[in-house]
Amino acid sequence: MNRNLLYRIVIICAAAIILIVGLRVYVWGKKKSPDIVPDYIFLYAENQTSDYPTTKGAERFASLVEERSGGRIRILVKCDAELGSESEVIRQMKNGGIAFARVSLSQLAEFVPEMNVLQMPYIYSSSDHMWRVLESDIGDEFLLMPQKYDLVGLAWYDAGARNFYSRTPINRLEDIRGMNIRVQESEVMADMVSALGANPTKIVYSDVYSALERGIVDGAENNWPSYESMNHCSVAKYYTIDEHTRVPELQICSKYIWERLDEEDKAIITNAARDSAIYERQLWAESEKRSRKIARQKGVTVIELSDEEKMRFRDAMRKVYSKYCADDMDMLHRIMDY
User: Fold this and answer.
1) Burial classification of residue 254, based on how many CB atoms lie within 10 Å of its CB (0-12 exposed, 13-18 middle, 19 or more buried)
2) 41 contact partners, CB below 8 Å, separation of at least 6
């Protein structure tokens, strides 16, 4: 073969190799570039602190969506109630002002009354019982219900069991009677407290510490991580484990936003939400154990109610069941017996 021809062939092959490698590096760089302009930038509302399990779950959700969409969808998580209280956030979502949020079922039920049955006091015997229900066809039915109210259910988040904590001890039903107990902006929770003979006081979450410190309320009710992370354990030293509610939390999307997404993006978001929920549940278990330990170290007295005393608290809920589940007693018993 002519030496000049061979030389030209080698040069052409080398140039081709350089071109191919260059194109691959360029494409890879475009995919990885932080400067890529997304098709969508959405807000996600979270009222908890940045290190809270639900906030970390939200951040995992945002990260998975961005990764799986190739950067086309970016979600900005705003914690510490920066975008408003949960009820304010839900109102904004119904109009498309906020795209995503994690909300307590207690708040959501004010807008989606069919959800009330899931948060009735004492209907779950344990955490395992609740998750059996939520991961069954029953849970799937409830995920669809918010769509009637311009919201889309994505995935269930854990929030543990809610218990009473107070400035003075609650050892029996008589001790809570007459107390001013902070409750969420939820009629069910208010009626539950009233049924126990206490006075429900609706105060936004960010103001609970001050209300306890100043004696505006005598107690409140929440799970271990919320109690400890917001330092309520410093101003309400008695934590009474009655496990009155195991209220799951729900990741939701504005239906206004949802209907503007194509099927591929909906699938990406739904799967990311479910994967983030698994992650959040793991974090929750670790957080609950850690928060309980920290609260004890701060001098909190943990009060375990006897089975007989718990039954007295539960028996007081009959009127609450009748008020909120008169048309859903079959579902209530279906959940209890599942």
Assistant:
1) buried
2) 74, 75, 76
Q: What percent of the chain has pLDDT over 70?
A: 90
Is the Cβ–Cβ distance between 253 and 152 less than 8 Å? Answer: yes
Q: Has residue 8 got a pLDDT over 70?
A: no
Q: Which domains does the chain have, with CATH numbers?
A: 40-159+248-286 (3.40.190.170), 162-246+290-337 (3.40.190.170)
Tell me, what's the pLDDT at 233? Answer: 97
Give the CA dihedral 181, 53, 118, 336, nearest 10 degrees: -100
Based on the number of CB atoms within 10 Å of its own CB, is 290 exposed (0-12), middle (13-18) or buried (19 or more)?
Answer: middle
Residues 335 and 130 sit within 8 Å (Cβ to Cβ): no
- CA pair distance 80, 88, nearest whole angstrom: 14
pTM of the model: 0.75
Q: How confident is the model at residue 26 (pLDDT cuts 50, 70, 90)?
A: very low
* C-alpha to C-alpha distance for 175 and 168, rounded to whole angstroms: 9
